[in-house]
Amino acid sequence: MRSIFLTVLIILCKSALSQTPELLWKFSTGACIIGSPVADDSCIYAGNTTGMLYAIQNDSAKLKWKFITGGSIRSTICINKQQLFLVSGDGNLYCLNKNSGKTIWVFHSLTGFIGDTQHDFADYYQSSPVVYNNAVYFGSGDGNIYSIDIASGNMNWKFATAGNVHTTPSVKDNKLFIGSFDGDLYALNSSTGNLIWKFKSTGHQYFPKGEMMGDPVVAGDIVFAGSRDYNFYAIDINGGYCRWMKQFPKGWALPVTVNDSVIYVGTSEDRLLLAIDINTGNIKWQTAVPFNIFGRCAITKRNGYFGTLMGKVYGIDLTTGKIQWTFNTDGYNKNHLKYFKPDDSYKENIGEIVGSAENIAKLYNETGAVFSTPLIISNKIIVTSADGNIYCLRSTN
Questions:
Q1: What is the biggest distance separating any 2 CA atoms in the chain, rounded to whole angstroms?
Q2: 10 Å Cβ neighbour count for 257?
Q3: Least confident window among 46-55, 353-362, 375-384
Q4: Contacts 24+ apart (CB under 8 A), 220-226
Q5: Contact 86, 129 (CB under 8 A)
Q6: pLDDT tens by residue, 306-327
Q7: 22-61 burial by CB neighbour count: b if 16+ within 10 A, else e?
């Protein structure tokens, strides 16, 4: 990924960044958090890269319980009634009691004693589990897609691809959609695991496989997915053909949020959040920010909230895309000037500071990058960060 060596687009927001939310509390986990926070009525759940899962009381920020796995957690937790499902880098799918954190069962995938492998340094996420019709579905670094019985932890079926499967599946009408780093988006029968169709990405000079890295999202009869080939695809869920696609000249368009007839798409190198008409692909508006967007935009009736890998969270007007406020993580406040100028552009010697592409993770950790999707609970905005903190903000609009 070329982002560290590309020229940064400097965006100066002319309007005042008003109505900045109040920080109610923050909870430190001590290590990078990649996955998004989830919550039930009383607790917020999030895991970090040391393999620790935390249950935090959302009214007091007190620790209720924690659970340790044998590998890095770079996925988002799935809650189903009293069960909590967790994918870990040790190759296991855990089913826990959400109230106590006690183990109900553990499914050992083929990589269970080896560990879930990453495709490369920019393969940030693991597949997050999804529950549908009494089964939990997830993808693995061993190249397989799994269906597991939620009661027993026994495998219903598995389907092999030719690459890491680190996207989070979407399921609709007994069809499961999931992308692989082999460059294919798969539609499977959710009951049997049989292939219905697969869609091959175009590929790119720098990424000839066209790795399917963006989580597929279904809206109506279209499944949307972004690829490393710089293309964003709208694919017919029945026929598996491309309805329309958009190419982004500088990089990847991966995170997608659906809102009625509009989807909100975040980009990396182009550093844009776009509102796009679902059926036509026409752009309604686009908002530029100084750095890469990898997490989805969380939405309310009027507003949207998203983070960037620089360690900033933005609040926007969903009608216009206008930025209303920004919030800086602790990592940004502490280490921003180590890598960036005061105007958020890179320092001239950024290549020397970072050293190599593999060291970009250090930049992200130190500046409190937000890989996750903010969680909205009433008037609260919960954000996880690579600086290891869970932040709770009180929205003022």
A1: 57
A2: 22
A3: 353-362
A4: 220/278, 222/278, 222/279, 223/170, 223/177, 223/185, 223/187, 224/256, 224/258, 224/263, 224/265, 225/167, 225/177, 225/179, 225/185, 225/256, 226/252, 226/253, 226/254, 226/255, 226/256, 226/265
A5: yes
A6: 999 999 999 999 999 999 999 9
A7: eebbbbebebbbbbbbbbeeebbbbbbbebbbbbbebeee
